[in-house]
Amino acid sequence: MGDEREMTRRIVVVGGGAAGMGAAGAAKGTDPSAEVIVFTGYEDAAYSPCGIPYVHGREIASFESLFMATKQQYVDQGIDIRYETTVASIDVKAKTVTTTDGTVERYDSLVLATGFDYADPDVPNSDLGGIYYVKNIRQAMEWDKVLDTVKTAVVDEATPLGAEMVTALAHRGIETHLVDPAPWAMSSATDPDIMEPVQESWIEMGAKLHFNTKVTGFVGDGGKLREVTTSQGGIQADLVVVATKKVPNVELATAAGLKTGMSGGLIVDGRMRTSVSGLYAAGDCTEIPHGVSNVPIQGLSGSHAYAQGKVAGVNAAGGTREYQAVYVPWGMVAGKWMIGGVSFSETLATALGVPFVVGNAQGISRARYYPDVKPVKVKLLAEPEHLRLIGAQLVGGEGIKERADFLAMAVRTGITINDLATMENVYSPPIGALNEPISLAAQNALSKLGK
Question: So what's the pLDDT on residue 94?
Fold first, then answer.
């Protein structure tokens, strides 16, 4: 009988976010005898960075509520987390990782969950004090104290995080300027008619919107930010939130010879295996095929990262699990509205040359006579030949998340706008109107086609 240590599977995970901790937990669940080691450069693991803007905006009372487990709970699960420890290199032949302090650890399977970085603003003086990247919860706790002293802030780019931070800072009573090079917010995922009510609500909240405008530099006094220069002039500011596009953090992986794809993320198969045997990857450092276009995409949500991590962890521990192509249901609160969608917007479909027919409807979330009834606008995109749903966008006061989830399954399973036009729906005055807005939008599309 061999040495027990040689028989015990050793799984190393690099990254302590949703993907990394999803992988660690799934690996331990698949092979309880496995030795699971997680390296994270941060002081903590498994908290929700997605909640940080809502603490800044005072919708959530404390940062502590964003932690999903205590450090002791991970110890009790048998997961060895090495905090504030950065992996500097991977030796794929020796099957080892080396940390910046020179520690070498062997692995049988390695899961890379190295996440993302914000795209470099690439402007002068980006090292000034007063420039905030929303990511690390301990840093966020310190920045939250700084916000008490901030009178004017700039949000650089209207990405989803940027939209959340505009809302949060305005809630905080800070004069907030949004600067974005596109004609409207979140332009890569949305259409202008969907974002119009959001932008109007930001203005009502006191925010100032600078579209078709690019940040060109930061100016400071004594190492501290004083002004943000833009293509349309300067903005006096005490703080800038850099909310640029998420780019995959793959430097460690590419140095080890792993292949990246057209989005810059690591190429993985359905089992989250990379181009190197024994190495898996999950989360924002990877790219995943889009279910309609088959184009690889990167930088999805925390739920995607967690699910990918679980797939990687199961397979790294000797199990078998597949991850599917994605259709990307999304939703968020921006300004005074909820917005959401699935797959393509009109703008994105047009840019990609994807043909479509469109249906629109303005509906309501509850019976018209029920108190606090909210508007719900739905836009549906379908491919012209068979009328299968390929995308949707929504804006309203409630019920957006549930509709986005449903419509993502509709796209995934090939449901047509004919199906949606005649769908059954819940009718109950407090929770659902007589006419479901999704069905109305499908009927609108059919009427345009003369059907």
Answer: 97
Q: Helix, strand, or coil here: 302?
A: helix
List, in sequence order, the alpha helices (H) in 333-436: 346-352, 400-413, 417-421
Q: Is residue 35 packed enough to be buried (19+ CB in 10 Å), middle (13-18) or exposed (0-12)?
A: buried
Distance in angstroms (rounded) separating the CA atoms of residues 392 and 329 = 9
Q: DSSP characters for 381-395?
A: EE-TTT-BEEEEEEE
Closest CA to 442 of 401, 402, 382: 382
- What confidence tens digit (pLDDT) does each residue in 47-88 have? 888 999 999 999 999 999 999 888 999 999 999 999 999 999
Distance between CA atoms of 106 and 117, rounded to whole angstroms?
Answer: 27
Cβ burial of 41 (10 Å; 0-12, 13-18, 19+) is middle
Give CA–CA dist 388/262, Å, rounded.
27
Asked whether the whole model's pTM tops 0.90, one would answer yes
pLDDT tier at 110, thresholds 50, 70, 90: very high
Q: Which of 15, 108, 53, 114 is nearest to 316 (CA)?
A: 108
Report the alpha-carbon distance of residue 406 to residue 11 in Å, rounded: 36
SS3 105: strand
Residues facing residue 326 across a β-bridge = 290
Token pair in block for residue 116: 């993302």
192 has a pLDDT exceeding 70: yes
Question: Per this entry, what is the length of the chain?
Answer: 451
Q: Tokens 């943000």 identify what position?
A: 228
Q: Are strands 337-343 and 330-334 parallel, antiparallel or unpaired?
A: antiparallel
